[in-house]
Amino acid sequence: MASTHTGIEWTDRTWNPTTGCNKVSPGCTHCYAEALTKRFHRNFPNGFDLTLHRERIKQPLRWRKPSRIFVNSMSDLFHEGVSIEFLKDVFDVMGQTPQHTYQILTKRHKRLAELAPQLEWHNNIWMGVSVENQDYVHRVDSLRQVPANVRFLSCEPLLGD
Questions:
Q1: pLDDT in tens, 13-38
Q2: Can you tell me whether residue 49 is helix, strand or coil?
Q3: Residue 154 has pLDDT above 80, yes or no
Q4: Is the overall model pTM greater than 0.90, yes or no?
Q5: In terms of Cα–Cα distance, which of 92, 20, 94 is closest to 52?
Q6: In terms of Cα–Cα distance, which of 124, 120, 27 is closest to 76?
Q7: Burial of 151 (0-12, 13-18, 19+ CB in 10 A)
């Protein structure tokens, strides 16, 4: 699942420089990515443990057709196990490929706000946070601090008001 074309209506393909994660809120309870690692366990030798795939970082440099790319459909780019150096390398590739639009989604709003000033926010990077119920609406305040050209919310799974 390094890179795939997808049937998801809001994106064209995925790019997974990291895979794996750990649960941080009720929205993680029935994680589709974790279920995929179990179903296709041969493709994920580390299971759902966070794994950095340095060999995948430069993949978008080969993609010529302008695409909307969901970054880390199988992980969270702002996971605490992802170093700032790794993040900067990912952001550098996004900057080198302005023909693409990159869609990043996180539940780790505090780390996002903490690291955002250290990253180069190119115009083709969209940043979003997940808000699954009223208890997590505060993630929006962290997103407001991010200098992304486009900021968005993902309200799924919507578990309450």
A1: 999 999 999 999 999 998 999 999 99
A2: coil
A3: yes
A4: yes
A5: 20
A6: 27
A7: middle
> Taking a C-beta distance cutoff of 8 angstroms, is the pair 112, 80 a contact?
no
User: How many residues make up the chain in this entry?
Assistant: 161
Check whether the bond before 157 is cis (ω within 30° of 0): yes
Contact between residue 58 and residue 93 where contact means Cβ atoms under 8 Å apart: yes
CA angle 49, 17, 132 (to 5 degrees): 65
Going by their DSSP bridges, the two strands 68-71 and 13-15 should be labelled as parallel
Going by C-alpha positions, the residue among 84, 131, 134, 67 that lies closest to residue 105 is 131
Question: Residue 150 and residue 146: Cα distance in Å, rounded?
Answer: 10
Residue with tokens 């997974």: 16
Between 156 and 67, the more confident residue is: 67
Query: Helix, strand or coil for residue 20?
Result: strand
